[in-house]
Specification:
InterPro entries: Aminoacid_DH-like_N_sf, NAD(P)-bd_dom_sf, SDH_C, Shikimate_DH, Shikimate_DH-bd_N, Shikimate_DH_fam, Shikm_DH/Glu-tRNA_Rdtase
Shape: globular
CATH architecture of the largest domain: 3-Layer(aba) Sandwich
Family: Belongs to the shikimate dehydrogenase family.
Oligomer: single chain
Largest sheet: 6 strands, mixed
Strand order of the largest sheet: 2-1-3-5-6-4
Bound molecules: 2'-monophosphoadenosine-5'-diphosphate
Organism: Marinobacter vulgaris
CATH superfamily of the largest domain: NAD(P)-binding Rossmann-like Domain
Distance between the termini: 28 Å
CATH class of the largest domain: Alpha Beta
Order of helices and strands: EHEHEHEHEEHEHEHEEEHEHH
Strand content: 15-25%
Protein name: Shikimate dehydrogenase (NADP(+))
CATH topology of the largest domain: Rossmann fold
Number of strands: 12
Number of helices: 10
Structural class: alpha/beta
Number of domains: 2
GO molecular function, one term: NADP binding
């Protein structure tokens, strides 16, 4: 069997082995997918060793996505812009290729699973860290009318605007602090890690209108802190990142195997855990 794995630290809670093994049984692909905990200080050795042993592909998660990007010999265009990689594989010449499927996963979940088009819409993105940088390219490729990046540290949002200006096309791209946006957006995407501490980005409730779509890139068994806040402000279309998690995995699976799994039954199964 071809061997795949997800590498992170910690890794025991990763859902990737479960997701990929469900994909494999559903599509009849013969593969094994495991979880590897790399030492904090030796991602490179762990990844290199895996491929030397004949491994076919790696997913990479916290805290190694940037190291994976640095380790690669070549990067796809979307990985280049993302500055981080969640997917590694070797090409025919044995060169290590880095890709990033997170943004594709987010966009596919919004558009295909939830029926929400991004084209021509006004989008507010909260946060300006690695998670947000990873998804901006694919969001902009959908040609929203406007994209506002709000962050606690405004300079980081401004840096992302500079970095993505060249791929923004006709989209108006702006940076600001959390307190600034005060009118309703069509779509609000929370990409901060604030919920991890049970915190909320201190954004005005006025950004939520009757039809605003809320998307928290985080996923947890209970409603996320951000989504609960949005519901309390009257939002009705509120989604978490479970679909994104499964869709980014599906995109990696498709890259490695050339087969597109059906994500719906996998999302449903994980939701019912
Ligand atoms: P990740 O890989 O999850 O993006 P990161 O690169 O450390 O991690 O970025 C974390 C993001 O969440 C940043 O936008 C951070 O804001 P700052 O850039 O100002 O640090 C944001 N964040 C983290 N904790 C937060 C909190 N308690 N309130 C608001 N924003 C928070």
């Amino acid at each position: 069997n071809d061997l795949y794995a997800v590498v992170g630290n910690p890794i025991s809670h990763s859902k990737s082995p479960r997701i990929h093994n469900l994909f494999a049984s559903q599509t009849g692909e013969q593969l094994e997918y495991t979880a590897i905990q790399a030492p904090e200080d030796d991602f490179a050795g762990t990844a290199t060793g895996f491929f030397q042993r004949g491994g076919k592909g790696l997913n990479v998660t916290v805290p190694f996505k940037q190291e994976a990007w640095e380790l690669a010999d070549r990067r796809t265009e979307r990985a280049q812009l993302a500055g981080a990689a969640n997917t590694l594989y070797q090409d025919r010449e044995g060169l290590l290729i880095a890709d990033n499927t997170d943004g594709k996963g987010l966009v596919t979940d919004l558009t295909a699973n939830h029926g929400i088009s991004l084209a021509g819409r006004r989008i507010l993105v909260l946060g300006a860290g690695g998670a947000v940088r990873g998804v901006l390219g694919p969001i902009l490729a959908e040609k929203p009318a406007a994209l506002v990046i709000a962050n606690r540290t405004v300079a980081k949002a401004e840096a992302l605007v500079t970095l993505f200006a060249a791929v923004a096309g006709d989209t108006s791209l702006d940076a600001c602090g959390f307190e600034q946006p005060c009118e309703p957006f069509d779509i609000i995407i929370n990409g901060t890690s604030a919920s991890l501490q049970g915190d909320l980005p201190p954004v005005s409730a006025n950004v939520i209108g009757a039809d605003t779509v809320i998307y928290d890139m985080m996923y947890s068994l209970q409603t996320t802190t951000f989504n609960q806040w949005a519901l309390d402000q009257g939002a009705t279309r509120v989604f978490d990142g479970l679909g994104m998690l499964v869709e980014q995995a599906a995109e990696s699976f498709r890259l490695w195997r050339g087969v597109s799994p059906d994500t719906r039954p996998v999302i449903d199964e994980l939701r019912n855990d």
